[in-house]
Design goal:
Layout: H1 2-44, H2 47-61, H3 68-77, H4 80-90, H5 98-110, H6 114-124, H7 128-152, H8 173-203, H9 206-220, H10 227-237, H11 239-252, H12 257-269, H13 275-283, H14 287-310, H15 314-320
Helix pairs in contact: 1-4, 1-8, 3-4, 4-8, 5-7, 5-14, 6-11, 8-13, 9-10, 10-11, 10-12, 11-12, 12-14
Length: 333
């Protein structure tokens, strides 16, 4: 009887995972398919090379070919999956080392889905332009640091082999469509795998363990006891969930404005550490960049911000960095 109940419950969990993966993928493909067609058209008319030349100064700063700017731009404007779809379209003509792909995936993790994520941060109080500059500048800075370390240390200099590889050179539209359909299938399987892994991690209470371990670390950075738990939620569950809690706290007035700012700054640089980080590791990014490098970089950046803002007057802070969000009362809630 117990085995039968277990099998029924397992079947329910599997069906739920597949249903969630299908919904997530369909929502994603509505964005990525037009982007993929757009990249194909750019390739057809040779515009990719011109855009690559235009973006090359920024990409050269982090040791990447100019065309990888299209990948980062897609990730920044939409999401990580869209960036990976663009990368799959460009991969046959670009040869990267594991170090370069790690740099690319790391800067994508630091700065992606900016229209949505920056709007979430703005609702809690931090000014949009400041959070935008923070995410972009920090992405470029960590990319520059990782590239320097990998280059001068001669680390991860082997050739990067894509998880999916478009072997057809100069395909016609039918071949391209078949190849893109295969890419979409890979993305669906990756999403399904990540959702399954998240279920296991939650069941094993790994998230709770991480909260216990990291709470003292964030406190040492100067973040208050009120901000640390919510920051960790954003780190583990994503900026949408953690940012939503921050918005509630900011509107209630229970958190100091500076704590709100520091919390969202840290979340912006290092969030959704299970799903997003695992995605990039599955794709071939090395943990030294996408996980550990990003984590310690975010710690150092926010620690320096805390020290800097401690000497800043409230008037200056409000003028340049923060605007008070509307209170719950003013919204009629």
């Amino acid at each position: 009887m117990e085995i039968r109940l277990f099998l029924i419950r397992l079947q329910q969990v599997i069906f739920e995972l597949i249903r969630t993966a299908v919904k997530t993928s369909s929502d994603l493909f509505r964005i990525t398919i037009p982007i993929s067609i757009g990249v194909r058209l750019l390739n057809e008319f040779g515009a990719t090379e011109y855009l690559g030349e235009f973006l090359s100064p920024v990409m050269e700063f982090v040791g990447l070919p100019g065309s990888m700017g299209l990948v980062w731009a897609a990730a920044m404007l939409t999401n990580l999956y869209a960036g990976l779809i663009v990368f799959a379209s460009l991969a046959p003509d670009v040869h990267l080392t594991v170090a370069q792909f790690t740099v690319l995936t790391t800067i994508m993790l630091v700065a992606h889905a900016l229209p949505v994520e920056l709007r979430i941060a703005q609702k809690a109080g931090p000014r949009f332009r400041i959070m935008f500059l923070l995410r972009i500048s920090c992405a470029l800075l960590i990319g520059f640091i990782l590239n320097a370390v990998y280059t001068y240390g001669d680390f991860l200099q082997t050739e990067y082999i894509p998880v999916w590889n478009q072997t057809v050179q100069n395909p016609d539209w039918i071949q391209w469509a078949i190849s893109e359909s295969r890419n979409m299938a890979y993305i669906f399987l990756i999403i399904l795998g990540l959702l399954s892994l998240m279920k296991v991690l939650n069941y094993l209470k790994i998230t709770d363990l991480l909260t216990t371990v990291l709470k003292p670390v964030l406190s040492l950075m100067g973040m208050s006891k009120d901000a640390a738990p919510i920051t960790i939620i954003g780190m583990t569950m994503g900026l949408g969930y953690g940012g939503g809690l921050i918005i509630q706290e900011a509107q209630s007035g229970r958190m100091l404005k500076r704590d709100v700012f520091f919390s969202l700054s840290f979340m912006g640089l290092f969030h959704s550490i299970f799903e997003d980080t695992l995605l990039m590791i599955v794709m071939g990014g090395h943990t030294s960049g996408v996980l550990w490098g990003r984590f310690f970089f975010a710690l150092i950046v926010v620690f320096l911000m805390v020290k800097l803002f401690n000497n800043m007057s409230e008037k200056t802070f409000d003028r340049f960095f923060f605007r008070s969000p509307p209170s719950n009362q003013s919204q009629g809630t």
